Amino acid sequence: MFHRTINTPKSRSFFLFGARATGKTTVIRERFPAHSTHSYNLLDLDVEEQLARDPMMLERQVLGLSSAITHVVLDEIQKLPKLLDVVHNLISTHRVPQSFILTGSSARKLKSGGANLLAGRAALRTLFPLTHRELGSAYLMESAIRWGCLPAIWNASDAEERDDILRSYANVYVKEEIWAEQLVRRLDPFRRFLEVSARNSGKILNYSNIARDTGVDIKTVQAWYGLLEDTLIGFHVDAWHSSIRKQLRQSPKFYFFDTGVTRALSKMLNVIPHPQTGYYGDLFEQMVICELNARSHYENLDYKLNFILTKTNVEVDLIVERPGKHPALVEIKSTNQVNESHVSSLEHFAKDFPEAQLELWSQDPKVQKFGRITAMPWQQGIRSV
Q1: What are the residues whose beta carbons fall under 8 Å from the beta carbon of 367, sequence distance 6 or more?
Q2: Which band of pLDDT confidence, cut at 50, 70 and 90, is reported for residue 243?
Q3: Per-residue pLDDT averaged across 279-290, rounded?
Q4: Which of these three, 255, 285, 315, is where a domain ends?
Q5: In terms of domains, do 44 and 166 share one?
């Protein structure tokens, strides 16, 4: 059992979003006892059918709950977004004493249907795969890079079981999250898109090349990336520029939310990532950025993650825009022995960012100074920004 660091309100309604298998149901069960919680699992076909046919049944049942029930859970609320109107009425008109916990693995239907998000009456929370802090002494770098950090992975007994979990995850995502919800019209091109996009995780997006490799047009590729973001399977990192107008002209990067899922979708599970290879380095960078993204959400830091790239291909992996603070420029290297060559990109931009925090994150356990640049272990770096 792992202690999750996400902050869940005790006496206020909230949405809990997160990709499939990140542990939303487990978090709810651990923090809200069964004897004081009434739950509706919308993945249960009978429950979904009953509430789809008669949404007001939810209102009648909640009004009939005993005073011992403090929370009502609607699991996978995106299955029936119209229930949010019922919940809103229960909170605002009937002023029921219960708080509502609304979980979901997709914001797609909620966005497209103009769903009622309770007008600020419910907090928003997002759950991610396990972080190195949550895993504690159980954390193993090579396992995290190779298989990712979904909870089921760390409860698996061996490599074969972990591979099976990830292959199953990829299939379930396509079949249940995408096809069953009718989010794409043609499944085969979307499967090809998933493989191509997973192999491009963390790289600057070339929509034309991806469209060619997938067999669809550029607008479809862009829409499908939006679908990946809406189903919480990944997130965009934009190119930085002091001019927002110029920023939008540069193609972004897209990071999948978990290295294991990325490897499964890209059909690379049989390729073991070895240190000192480009493949390993790409996965390491993805893992670290995902950890920082999780910390920003869990601690309500409101960080904006960007990258910077010059016309001569000098690149810094991250510019972290921090409200009320100067930005942090971060270069991420998988090396376990940092030297001066690793800080050249940061040195290139040092004069352009005179007030910025300049850091190099790696697997080297030593903290070193290279002028204004501080090199440190990546775990320390995530805490330092």
Answers
A1: 374, 375, 376, 377, 380
A2: low
A3: 98
A4: 285
A5: no
Pair 173, 109 in one domain: no
Between 298 and 244, the higher pLDDT residue = 298
Q: Which residues contact 112 (CB under 8 A, 6 or more apart)?
A: none
CA dihedral in degrees (280, 209, 264, 297; nearest 10)? 80
Token pair for 111? 């966005």
Work out the average pLDDT over 291-299.
97
Mean of all residue pLDDT scores within the chain? 93
User: Which of 252, 285, 318 is the last residue before a domain boundary?
Assistant: 285
Neighbours of 14 (CB within 10 A): 20
In this prediction, residue 112 carries a pLDDT of 59
Look at residue 8 and tell me if it is in a domain.
no
Separation between Cα atoms, residue 107 and residue 111, nearest integer Å: 6
What's this model's pTM, rounded to 2 decimal places?
A: 0.93
How large a percentage of the chain has pLDDT more than 70?
95
Residues 278 and 138 in one domain: yes
* pLDDT of 380 strictly over 70: yes
Average pLDDT, stretch 217-231? 93
Split into its structural domains, the chain has a count of: 3
Query: Structural domain of residue 241, as residue ranges?
Result: 132-285
Say yes or no to pLDDT of 109 above 90.
Answer: no
